[in-house]
Queue: 2 jobs
Job 1
Amino acid sequence: MDESLTSKIRNDFDKIALHDQEGWDHNNHYHRFLLKQLPIRCKTVLDIGCGTGEFSRLLAKRADQVIAMDLSSKMIEVAKQRSKQYVNIDFQVGDVLQLQLPVEQFDAIVSIATLHHLPVEELLPNLKSALKPGGRLVILDLLEYESLQDSLSDVIAVPLNWLFQILKNRHIKASPEAVKAMREHLRTDKYLTLSQAAVASQSKVLPGLVLISFGQESDLTSASAGFFENSCS
Ligand SMILES: C[S@@+](CC[C@H](N)C(=O)[O-])C[C@H]1O[C@@H](n2cnc3c(N)ncnc32)[C@H](O)[C@@H]1O
């Protein structure tokens, strides 16, 4: 992967982390749904691109150990501050592409809103081999629109998104610096369409992957979740 892009992503998220406020967003909206796709009890779970660790903390309630990693050291700093009572989370700064993932180690691997920063074809085989037999890979990410149906789903999803923002984030006001940092990041963000994600992941790499597309997420992208159970022994 292009080192200058990795470096931009790291810098972008270092800035975004400084302005992060806890509240409702289009990623944590799906947390409960994603948790349902995971085993009730896990020994070891990996959270890739954990950000400020909100989902890692939910994982820590059902796993003996959570390894939560992120490219941005500032994100990990905030995550550690917010997770002091979670002694079973091991927060690590690192690039998942540089990580030598252990074979058949994890009961579950989770990644939220991070895969669009990574070369999926390169990463997925490594994630698959890092899962224990029967382990689960759960991914939530953004998608580029590709069909009229995607656009039509906005008729419901866009007003709902606004409504949740108003109701749930009433007391939260993003600072101009926060908005600027996010805009700068989105300038280089690129997403796959659902068909591209299916081709990149399903055919040979993760046979049996279930891909679900939800409605509008933000800035004219929709969200999708993928679940894969490693049936290889
Ligand atoms: C949009 S944030 C999502 C954070 C968190 N998962 C959430 O749902 O709030 C994407 C995160 O992925 C991280 N990231 C991007 N590329 C990465 C890489 N190569 N290795 C590890 N983390 C990465 C970023 O630093 C950022 O914190």
Job 2
Amino acid sequence: MSNTVQRAAHSLPANLPAAFRPLLPGVPTQPTAGDRHSVPVILAKAPRTWTFTDRESGEQKTFTCMQGCVDRHDDIRSGLAVAEDVWCRRHTNDVTLPINDSGQPEELSVLRATMNVDPFDRRMAQRLPHIDLEIMDDAWLEGLDPDGFATVINTLQGRLDEMRAMHAELVVVRAAYMKQVQA
Ligand SMILES: [Zn+2]
């Protein structure tokens, strides 16, 4: 049984585009017209290509990581991979708020977005880069394509606009209330 793991070479060409060279102190980081099409450094690495034997089917499988994938794919490295569980991902940093979900406030993650590819999923849509959005601790909006993700963002933006308006009202109403109770 072959447990070969191949790793794409990460060597970079000698004549690196300006965007990929180490930044020097005082050098502006704004892109110039010349490197307008440069991509973040995280995308500059060649995506890793893996070959492994699926533990369920015994078949040899090959896939190339999604750009920017941060998964170490330890199950592949250790020869334990089941193809359907292979998962490429990158994610936003956690943002937490003290939410009362069980009787007392605790820091819970909100609006954590992950970008994923499930290269061997039975649902074809999962094999393309998509977003899973954890609204709050273990409550997910799953399988969002760009249009779906935009719809969610617009919905949340509308909610944020309402909250901004309510914030302005709160300031006014609160000041009026303080005058009432002090009168
Ligand atoms: Zn990956």
